[in-house]
Amino acid sequence: MDTATEQRSDHVLMLAVRDGELDALGELFERHHGPLFGFLVKLTGQRSAAEDIAQTVFQRMLKYRHTYRDDGSFSAWMYHLARRCAADHFRKTNAAPHATDPADLQEHADERPHAGDHATARDDHALLHTALARLDRDDREVLLLSRFQELSFAEIAGILECSVGAAKVRAHRALGELRNIYVRLQQQRSA
After folding, report:
1. Which of 22, 45, 89, 167 could anchor a disulfide with 157, C-beta 3.0 to 4.6 Å?
2. Do 1 and 66 sit in the same domain of this protein?
């Protein structure tokens, strides 16, 4: 691969795909498959479903490449497609997302060991992921997009097809619900 290809942004690569340079999709796949898969595992609670949906997302990127706009954000467009693909998956299988196995979340977590409090931190981390898994899918989705995927609220609003203010309110309420679930889990653990 030449240096020019390595330095192209996601946006430039997707414009190239849109214009018929289909090999550029391979670079986008290499860059985004891992984070997209992690997002989908957390969203669906199923590793096999997440892998299937991730593959479908990249297939749809190719199929609907003509819909990518110059003014768009590649990440926001990709997560919008992912959201649609996940909804289609659950509609086809007539199933709701499963509670995420904390072991799957742990595998995709960005964990850094702490000296003295490592065991407590690990327990708290697992408790947080259990709380996240207990959120309803819409709340989990907005938190994953804002906190884990670090998208802007403008990008999230585009993905969720709502106003920026509504995206912020949804994220705030979801964070409050996550906090409530987390506190209840802590109390149950202490009892």
Report:
1. 167
2. yes
